[in-house]
Amino acid sequence: MFSDQQILTLAAAALSTTTFIYAVTVRRRSRRHASLLAQQEEELQSLKAELAEKEEGREQDLKFKNSLKQAEVTTGLQQTRISFHNETSKSKAPERYAYVLSMFRSGIPTEEISAALGMSSHEITQLLKLSALAKKTEPAAD
Fold it and tell me: The pTM is what?
């Protein structure tokens, strides 16, 4: 049959063939795993970029909300101040008009009226013209 030399040669050939096949199989597996790892790494990088974009958007939303709150507070404070000034100016303006008109009807010259009320003579003249216009546009009482 086979000599010891041939058996050893066949055994060595079988062992080397088995080792070669095992090495090729291990190499294929490692390449497949490396490919899977590369894909997962790419997916992780894209998820990381997506997360960074969302975080940036969230920060911008928070900044916008904060500035909107500040604007609302500022507007509220200004509205209060504006309404206060409007109320005070509304109450003062008709009194001034009435004083100017009554003083003018009393025969006091516009220069004296302006000095007494701390207004310019041009303003007094304008108020008198406006009051004359207002009288013309008032409906006649029956």
Answer: 0.39
